[in-house]
Design a protein that fits this description.
By secondary structure, the chain is of the alpha/beta class. Helix content is about 55%, strand content about 10%. The chain contains 19 helices and eight strands. Helix 12 packs antiparallel against helix 13.
Length: about 500
């Protein structure tokens, strides 16, 4: 390919990439604020709202919320309005950058690999869904694989011992520092990013030049500091690990073809770029096994693995196109359209027609309570501070209505009996005392032993997720709290009781 043809081909690719990004952006912002925030989205949005009010993501309970990078960026968007749309824009941004990253990595493998990868990333349903959520999982996926890509590029520009500093060696240090920055952002987002630390350390020591080997100290410090807390999150039961892996696999029923074609794409990619492929796939598999061993299940924990899955599936078709020519465009079109929501409106894999909801179908691990559907007259009563307001999960209530006066303790993931209570330090004169409050809102916790002594009238909001997590004794006490109350609003995800 001569220079002019190469320049023309590059321009065509950039035009196609721009068109893909525009389409991807439309899919991600269409009716972005329509669906209610699910519970974790509400917590993140409240943390970012606290940044606007206090400068730091600290709840009224005194709890400092994690994931600083994500929440400060999210808080920036909330400056333009405290609403669901702006709260979710942060993940739209990171979702768009993930498509660009897929394009850059795909280009490393083949001439058309970047465009084909960008195309499938733009429409793959989980990529679209998680790019529409006010939560940090899209940022984590982006930074996890950006760190790997930049690490690989730093090795491509490393100079041999004795060589003088050149433009390439300057690129090496820029890529290496960029990789470390991405690693620490991923680590700030999720402790699971610690999986990358050994690979970064080994790469720096083995591939990067001696002038840069001291940088291996940075991920090594994080590895020693955070390794034991990360290990403590795992289950020691082989049976539970197998059970959770089966639960995750159950969510792939609609895309078995993708899992199958991912395998030849992976092997084909390995023979083209061994080092890059190993850098992507080995940490991903190690982390996926770690996810399976966690003591709880949530689809979002395994979402990061969508990146290598879609990448090598896409590269398989780019290799076929370059081998067999334009006839493969028909196959590519079919694989893009047939499993899409144009043909299968309920079990699709690709989103071609814009959607106004933000959840993968049947994802029971991301529950929500739709306060948007509660009639305005009831919302007005809940907002009235003369009316005592009692809730279970509080973040979405505080986001849509107001902070509750009291919160009922329960367990978020079924472990233990109370994961909501938080000891807040209060200074009285020269003394410091602890008050038990809700960790998210700072509202007073209700002791189950005195729950039936609370004076009426009051309102109780009971989301189905929280109620389902109550232990037997807690459920009995909760029934006493709402005994004789009128159900003023009822839906499958939320009930509101008026107790007079």
């Amino acid at each position: 390919m001569n220079y002019m043809n190469k320049f023309k081909f590059l321009n065509i690719q950039l035009i196609l990439l721009f068109a893909i990004l525009i389409f991807a952006f439309v899919l991600r912002v269409y009716d972005l604020g329509y669906s209610p925030l699910w519970i974790d989205e509400a917590t993140s949005s409240m943390a970012s709202k606290m940044i606007i009010e206090k400068g730091v993501p600290i709840f009224d309970s005194g709890l400092v919320y994690r994931d600083y990078i994500f929440h400060y960026v999210q808080a920036f968007f909330l400056l333009f309005g405290i609403n669901d749309f702006n709260a979710r824009l942060v993940s739209v941004l990171f979702g768009m950058l993930t498509i660009v990253l897929a394009y850059l990595i795909g280009k490393e493998y083949s001439k058309t690999g970047g465009i084909v990868a960008a195309l499938f990333f733009s429409v793959f349903y989980l990529e679209v869904f998680f790019s529409r959520q006010a939560r940090f999982y899209q940022l984590f996926q982006l930074m996890f694989f950006l760190s790997i890509y930049l690490l690989y590029k730093s090795g491509e520009y490393s100079r041999k011992s004795g060589e003088k500093i050149s433009k390439n060696s300057k690129k090496e240090i820029i890529y290496l520092i960029g990789s470390l920055v991405a690693f620490f952002i991923a680590l700030d987002t999720q402790i699971a990013a610690l999986v990358l630390a050994p690979f970064i350390i080994l790469h720096i020591l083995y591939y990067n030049t001696k002038y840069n080997k001291l940088l291996a100290i940075l991920p090594a410090i994080s590895l020693f500091q955070k390794f034991m807390p990360a290990v403590g999150l795992s289950s020691v039961s082989t049976d539970s690990t197998m059970n959770y892996s089966e639960s995750y696999y159950a969510f792939t029923n609609n895309m078995h073809y993708l899992l199958i074609l991912f395998i030849p794409g992976l092997f084909w990619s390995f023979f083209k770029k061994k080092k890059l492929t190993l850098l992507i796939i080995i940490p991903s598999i190690v982390m996926l096994i770690g996810i399976f061993s966690l003591q709880t299940f949530a689809l979002r924990y395994a979402y990061f693995f969508v990146f290598p899955l879609v990448l090598y599936f896409s590269l398989f078709f780019s290799f076929l196109y370059e081998k067999y020519g334009k006839i493969m465009l028909i196959t590519l079109f079919c694989v893009l359209i047939i499993p899409s929501n144009l043909i299968f409106p309920y079990t699709y894999v690709n989103i071609i027609k814009p959607i106004n909801y933000n959840h993968a179908y049947n994802d029971y691990s991301s529950p929500e309570a739709n306060y948007k559907s509660v009639p305005e007259n009831i919302i007005a009563k809940l907002k009235d501070r003369d009316n005592v307001l009692i809730s279970l999960f509080s973040s979405d209530l505080e986001w849509y209505v107001r902070k509750p006066d009291y919160v009922i303790p329960f367990t978020m993931d079924g472990r233990g009996s109370d994961q909501i209570s938080w000891n807040k330090t209060i200074e009285i004169g020269n003394m410091k005392v602890f008050e038990v409050v809700d960790r998210y809102s700072g509202a007073r916790m209700i002791d189950y032993e005195i729950i039936n002594t609370i004076k009426r009238p009051y309102y109780v909001t009971a989301d189905s997720f929280s109620v389902s997590k109550l232990k037997l004794e807690q459920k009995e006490s909760f029934d006493k709290l709402i005994n004789g109350c009128e159900v003023v609003y009822s839906a499958s995800d939320l009930k509101v009781y008026g107790c007079s």
